[in-house]
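Subject line: Sequence and fold of a protein, written as structure tokens
Body of memo: The sequence and its backbone structure tokens, given next.
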Amino acid sequence: MAKNVLIFSTAYLPLIGGAELAVKEITDRLPEYRFFLITSRMNRQLPKSEKIGNVEVYRVGFGFSFDKYLLPIFGFLKAKSFLKANNFNLIWAIMASYGGIAAWLTKKFYQKVPFLLTLQEGDYSPDKKFGLAGLFLKKIVKSADYIQAISNYLKEEAIRAGARPEIIEIAPNGADLKKIQNSKFKIQNYKSRLKNELNIKEDEKIIITVSRLVEKNAVDATISALKILHQKYALNSIKFLIIGDGCLKQNLKKQAEDSGLKDSVIFLGAVPPEDVYQYLFISDVFVRPSRSEGLGSAFIEAMACGLPIIGTNVGGIPDFLKDRKTGLFCEIDNPENLAAKTKELLENKELREQIIQNGLKLVEEKYSWDKISTQMKNIFEKVESL
């Protein structure tokens, strides 16, 4: 008989982020569970309910962006109707956000149902969160029966917020190695065609980022570094691919144009997850000089695609980026330093190959979704027994 898990998530597919993709990857690999997910609707085009993979999704709200602020109340009311009709083995909150508040409220009224909290936040800090979610953040963390953090950084932040260390377990996000291998095989036949479509010459190098276009991901610093690569190092045959969308898109386009890089910076916008790999496979270096980071799933996928990575020594990044072994560290908000590190990876073939091989080995050993899903199943069983 299948076990029932009630999930609360502020957003869910087709709205895409690392947390949402993690839920999809994990739930698809656990057929012995039935997953019911409550989320905010946020778009009138989205159905109020549908099944996505192994998850029955229920969206609450009016179909506008402010639905997330209503999720604590509407989500709790929806959960009440579920809990009256079904026995649930556990409540699972994805992040200490608006969905987390709904889960906390549900736990207050249904204390016998164990509560698992997943921390995925890239800008998590009990001292920096503001608004409704910030007000409840410490309450959510303290009320959880068990916490899954995707990085050591988030584990330490949870402890600072008042969680007991013994109830926290690290289970990171990962990569689908089988899917990546299939994509690698397919793209071999049309690499040149894809480059032609992007107006990239065969001898040009490609740096790439997969990032929401928001302040924390520092795409602006990479554009500044590209200008330095062109002007200081005379490396003009470099293109910068940007996959992702966000509130800073127009600002970043203007920065590229004002810097004389309009033809060198290519904004691809939001790309379906299964199509991201083709762009990673034609690239030479993955760059994301983050100002904060919960873990950085995009780095893991880039490593799994055989790309050397450059990141900053912040948040959860040091869990997988060991300087000059699995990647290179660059300084925060220092385009000059980032340009120098990018140049080194493009020109030092021995270092580049060493980083690629070490990165592939690390992902296979620690960051495959198959292994992580097994770990999550074990966590579910621990929580059920509480």
In short: The longest strand covers residues 33-40. The radius of gyration is 21 Å. The chain has two domains: 3-174+369-384, 177-366. The CA atoms of residues 360 and 385 lie 36 Å apart.
